[in-house]
Specification:
Elements lengths: L1 E4 L10 H14 L3 E4 L9 H7 L3 E8 L5 E9 L2 E5 H5 L17 H12 L4 E5 L10 H6 L3 E3 L20 E3 L8 E5 L12 H5 L8 H18 L12 H13 L2 E3 L1 H9 L1 H5 L4 E9 L8 H11 L4 E8 L3 H7 L3 E4 H4 L3 H6 L1 H15 L7
Parallel strand pairs: 1-2, 1-11, 5-6, 6-9, 9-10, 11-12, 12-13
Antiparallel strand pairs: 3-4, 4-5, 7-8
Helix pairs in contact: 1-15
Family: Belongs to the glycerate kinase type-1 family.
Keywords: Kinase, Transferase
Protein name: Glycerate kinase
């Protein structure tokens, strides 16, 4: 068989590329050919997946979510660049893990985008997962040249947090190089404001853990929206993504929001590679209800099922039942924790266990077995 190997990362244990390599060891040992095509859905690991597909990694130092310098990167191929919010100003970059709901900003994301444009990229693909901020994309816009002005006409400081958006009374938008397009990998449909908006839904996980803080951030975003775009982009699906960065990207940069896996799959040439496969092996750290909401393995399985190609999956843990798996297009699964019940040991020996799981799947997949 020719096997397309398209896993997402095992968070905390293996990158998507490492998972793919561990799967390939079992596939080639059984005499099959393999195409390693690790995937992502626009969250953390998206740049790594692009690099694994042949993009070149470019290192850049940029501002973390609270202004501290961090080492990040973007991936580049031809006119395309891939940038990942999580790696530069996401929750994982908060110093000491301390949440800063009113102060964290997206300025670092804008700095990485600016570096990609300066390098010659003309299409920028942004992954928005893992945001630490609720700044409506203000910091991102500032890093790309926007000027935010207060009531006295003075320019507000760069890296404005969500708590200070009410100070903005005028915006001079950024000007991007001619021919620039920005596409955003986004799997949420929240508007910017209100009970389903950025502050109410995602603010608590970023430290806005009281009703008062949520109300403060929602009011600040509403003030920002009135200044930036009174025409209604705030109500568009995805405007509330990444603390309102989706709104800022659409309103100030004309960005287009697209489902994360679809956008990544296009960059990887996934459909062309799928057409050559007899079997697809996917997976991620945990196959659960969240998997079915547009994450990498679900995207892989959906496209493979449409092409009539069977899909099996390996995971650290499988929380979906046989009917849910079949509904997703997955005909067989194997779990690391079934081989090694101790979580610590399973994580420490994840690559070896992935290979063993795939050996089980290859032995049973022709029967369409499920776990």
């Amino acid at each position: 068989m020719h096997v397309l190997i398209s896993p997402d990362k095992f968070k905390g244990s293996l990158s998507a590329a490492d998972v793919a390599a561990a799967i390939a060891r079992a596939v080639t040992a059984h005499g099959h050919t393999a195409d390693l095509c690790p995937v992502a859905d626009g969250g953390d690991g998206t740049v790594d997946v692009a690099v694994a597909a042949g993009f070149t990694r470019h290192a850049v130092t940029a501002s973390g979510p609270t202004g501290e310098p961090v080492s990040s990167s973007f991936a580049r191929s031809g006119d395309d660049a891939v940038v990942e919010l999580a790696d530069v100003c996401g929750l994982v970059r908060l110093p000491g893990g301390v949440l800063r709901p009113t102060e964290a900003t997206t300025v670092g994301l804008g700095e990485v985008v600016a570096a990609a444009l300066a390098d010659g990229a003309r299409r920028v693909v942004l992954g928005l997962g893992g945001s630490a901020s609720t700044d409506g994309g203000a910091g991102l816009a500032q890093a790309l040249g926007a000027r935010l002005l207060d009531a006295s006409g003075s320019e507000l400081p760069r890296g404005l947090g969500g708590g200070r958006l009410t100070e903005v009374v005028a915006v001079e938008p950024p000007v991007l190089p001619p021919g620039t397009t920005i596409e955003v990998a986004c799997d949420v449909d929240n508007p910017l404001l209100g009970p389903h908006g950025a502050a109410a839904v995602y603010g608590p996980q970023k430290g806005a853990d009281t009703a008062e803080l949520v109300e403060t951030l929602d009011a600040a975003l509403a003030s920002w929206a009135r200044v930036v775009d009174p025409g209604g982009v705030a109500d568009e699906p995805g405007a509330g993504a990444a603390g309102g960065a989706g709104f800022g990207l659409m309103a100030l940069l004309g960005a287009r929001l697209r489902p994360g896996f679809d956008l990544v799959a296009e960059l990887l040439g996934f459909d062309e590679r799928l057409a050559r496969a007899d079997l697809v092996i996917t997976g991620e750290g945990r196959l659960d209800a969240q998997t079915l909401r547009g994450k990498g393995p679900a995207g892989v399985a959906t496209r493979a099922r449409a092409a009539g190609i069977p899909v099996v999956a390996v995971a650290g843990r499988v929380d979906l039942d046989a009917d849910e798996l079949a509904g997703a297009g997955i005909v067989g699964t194997a779990a690391l924790l079934d081989l090694e019940p101790d979580l610590g040991r399973a994580q420490a020996h994840a690559a070896e266990l992935v290979t063993r799981c795939v050996e089980q799947l290859l032995a049973g997949q022709a029967l369409g077995t499920t776990r």
